[in-house]
Please model this.
Amino acid sequence: MVELIAGLRAERIHENLERIREELTRARAGAGGGSGEVEILAASKYVACRDLPILAEAGVRLLGENRAQDLEEKVAAHGSLFEWDFIGQLQSRRVRLIVPHVRLIHSVASESALRELGRHREQARPGLAILIEVNLAGEQGKAGIAPEDLDAFIALAPVPVVGLMTMPPLSERPEDSRRWFAALRALAEDRDLHHLSMGTSQDYVVAAEEGATIVRIGTNLYH
Model:
């Protein structure tokens, strides 16, 4: 059972949002960051549906959900307040529940998911696009396409592929993620893919320095 965050305050979240924006702007101005704004995606897995208007009041505009059922519930209640992405592990049997609601799916990593995306294209929100999840470190038991299989996988996609996503190996040092973020950027540049979804509350500054276009923020935004 997911433990939801209690006591959310719009003022505090707004302060955090502005601080994170400033940090991202500085990071992108540094070496390797390139130009352009970094989107802040608020990971809403730990936020109760009833509390989502607090995020909107604070200035949050983009939410990322992890579970198809929660996505359906939250969009039904507060769909017009936000843009919605799906960031959780993509189960093939849940694709049909997700595609009507989101602009991006960040976690496409199986041929069965691609087949389901093809089957349900007519039900998808107009403009739906996907990011391919890449397992750069070759971690066993972790989702993601191996870099050497990326081109063949993209060729099978029935909807537009606009970028890549990765989750680097767990580490206590944000700097340890840099090599993986740089590698993802290189893969995207070689394929003329614009979006890079990389970086979480722990290492979003490093991700922005390495070219992230979307960072997925949870605890740093809410506390």
Observations:
- The chain has a mean pLDDT of 95.
